[in-house]
């Protein structure tokens, strides 16, 4: 998964953000399982961007809730 820009995240509404967040969390769990098994080689650099994307989406959801 590619890094999502802040501009892209701000364009999404809350429902789309939550759907994308669920998708990212499932991808992160798959990557973590592969990492713990030791089968994660080429994709070892994908863990950090996925975590950062999740954090960006959670931040935007919190901003929307405060408005």
Main pleated-sheet profile: none
Hey, roughly how much beta strand do the residues contain? under 5%
| Mean pLDDT value | 90
Number of H- or I-type helical stretches: 3
SSE order, one letter for each helix or strand:
HHH
Percent helix? over 70%
Rg on CA atoms, Å: 13 Å
Task: Outline the structure in words.
The chain is mainly alpha-helical. It contains three helices and no strands. The protein has helices at 6-11, 14-37, 47-66. Helix 2 runs antiparallel to helix 3. The model has no long low-confidence stretch (mean pLDDT 90).
Describe the protein's topology.
Layout: H1 6-11, H2 14-37, H3 47-66
Keywords:
67 residues, mainly alpha, 0% strand
Quick summary:
The protein has helices at residues 6-11, 14-37, 47-66. With 67 residues, it is an all-alpha fold.
